[in-house]
Structure formats: C-alpha cells, structure tokens
Amino acid sequence: MGVEEKAKYVLDLLYNPSKDELRMALINMNINVEDLEHILGSSEGKPYYRKLLYKNDDIEMLVMNWSQLECAPHDHGESHGFIQVLSGSSINTVYELDEKGLPSELFDQIQESGKIFYAPKKGVHKMQAAGGSDLVTLHLYSPPITGMKVYDLEACAVCVVSDDCGAWWPEEQRQKLKEIQLRDGGYGTIHLKQSNNSTGR
C-alpha cells in the first residue's frame, strides 16, 4: 500500500480529531522514509522542502526534508498536531512569548529518528537538522495550517504568512499577509502592512 492509500485509509475516517486520535493516526499509517524517497525534493537554499501528502477540511499531512539551515521561530496558527522524525535527528527549540509578544527561548530537545512529538496550538518552536544528519520529518496537523506567524527575533518583528510560505521570513511581498513591528516596552503593533493575497499549500 502506497503513502496516498495509507493516508486515505486512516485519515478519511477522522473528523475534528483529538490529540490522541491524531497521534494514533500517525502511528497506524506506519509511514517510513523509504515510502517517501521518490517525492523528496531539494530545499533550494531554504531550511526545508515540503510536499503535501493529504488534505481535507479537518487534517493535512506533509513531509519535509531538511537542509542544514534552521527554520525561523513560528507557530501553527489555530492548528495543533504531531511531528514524526523519519530519518536523522532534529534539534527542536521551544519558546514562550514574553510580555512584548516576542518568543523567549525555553529549552532545546534532540528528537531522534522514530520520535513523535506534539506541536500545541499557539505553541512557538523552531527546528533544524542535528549534527549534519539527513533529517526527514512527517507532519500531521488539524485543522490545516493557516495564519502561521513567523518571528524575526533580531528585528523584533512578526509576520503572518500566506499558506504557501514555510517557516522563514517571506521573500515575496504577496506572502506577507500582515507584518507587525514590535518595540521594546510596548504592546501591540507599531507598524502594520496588510495584504489580502493568500495562496493555498
């Protein structure tokens, strides 16, 4: 059974899945890196290449193969889900938002091949391949991610990105749905750019 058939067989049955249902679905699909090697692509100077494997109104599943670059700190909008390390190992850095609305680093975790870890709603994290490993990860989220926030810690800024942008600061203006400049000692937005352009994954 191929990846698409496995995904359909398991995920078509889920409606507004709970945390436990998402985790069990990922385990039950039993997808390994060999199943996906034929669809992995080049990251082309980005932290990762991603490929959408399954999507409906309630769920999306993606595979990502990583370069040696780290992604930016980001959340997953109103979505939650699980990340499974299929190959290599990942450094996963977890943040909390400070009083200015910027991420403050809490801790790093090394996630080895085979590990499944949770990405909570509104949780902020970043990832990168550990120790030069060939990192491949499988991601299962509910609902499909939209309104993801990407943070630039040096610029004290946050950007709501379009659905076709990954976890990095957008290079194309159309991918910047909302850009918020945060200043020391203040709350909310000082500088705001608004665009209504959005492109699906």
From TrEMBL:
<dbReference type="Pfam" id="PF05995">
    <property type="entry name" value="CDO_I"/>
</dbReference>
<keyword id="KW-0408">Iron</keyword>
<dbReference type="GO" id="GO:0008198">
    <property type="term" value="F:ferrous iron binding"/>
</dbReference>
<comment type="similarity">
    <text>Belongs to the cysteine dioxygenase family.</text>
</comment>
<keyword id="KW-0560">Oxidoreductase</keyword>
<dbReference type="InterPro" id="IPR014710">
    <property type="entry name" value="RmlC-like_jellyroll"/>
</dbReference>
<feature type="binding site">
    <location>
        <position position="74"/>
    </location>
    <ligand>
        <name>Fe cation</name>
    </ligand>
</feature>
<dbReference type="InterPro" id="IPR011051">
    <property type="entry name" value="RmlC_Cupin_sf"/>
</dbReference>
<feature type="binding site">
    <location>
        <position position="125"/>
    </location>
    <ligand>
        <name>Fe cation</name>
    </ligand>
</feature>
<keyword id="KW-0223">Dioxygenase</keyword>
<dbReference type="InterPro" id="IPR010300">
    <property type="entry name" value="CDO_1"/>
</dbReference>
<feature type="binding site">
    <location>
        <position position="76"/>
    </location>
    <ligand>
        <name>Fe cation</name>
    </ligand>
</feature>
<dbReference type="GO" id="GO:0016702">
    <property type="term" value="F:oxidoreductase activity, acting on single donors with incorporation of molecular oxygen, incorporation of two atoms of oxygen"/>
</dbReference>
<protein>
    <recommendedName>
        <fullName>Cysteine dioxygenase</fullName>
    </recommendedName>
</protein>
<keyword id="KW-0479">Metal-binding</keyword>
